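>> received
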Amino acid sequence: MSSANLDPAIPIGAVDKVANLAKPPAETQEPITSSSAIPLVSGEGCDLSSLLSFDPESIEPAPSTACDEPRPSAVQRQFQRLKALLSSPIETLVENPEEVKSVLEEIQHHLPVTLQVKLWPVVTLSAYRSRVKLARQRIELRHAQLPLKTDIADKCQRLNEKKAALDAKTDTSVSTAELETLRKELEELEERLVTGKDEDDKAEIAEVDLVRADALRAFEAFLL
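>> returned
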């Protein structure tokens, strides 16, 4: 049938669309799948053990050998120098802790942080210089004032004798003025005496020395 015999009320374009719809649909081409493709099941995890030829958990990082490496000889010498400084008397360290600071600055990268926390307080020991120095001086003065104590004991005995004579009035030459003179001499001698106990001053020094002792113990444990 030609388009001339169609109903004039139907547009020609509509006839063409109808003709196209009448044609059989083209065959849909199915996707090509490879036999080597890995099937994935929706909703299920991927089991690597079935895909790999080895156990992934068997792979372990190589152990670090940094701690087993020998320390450079220069670092070893600095370690021994620091140990010697920490073994010094506390009186020496409070006078000049700068050398400890210098050594620590050179080797701090070779020391764990926990050890540095123990070592660095030694650098601040100069703040206790006067405290340690005065305590040590008091101890030394007590040991050196034995003759002074003997002189004080002698004057005390003389004062007691003169006071007893004055009270008994057995010696009229003894006057109150003479007793007062002896008393003043005794007071002057007592002012020269160092009061306190050696044990207290030693404990004060030991308290400061604890910083040095703790640092030395920690460092010796590190060197083992």
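>> The mean pLDDT is 76.
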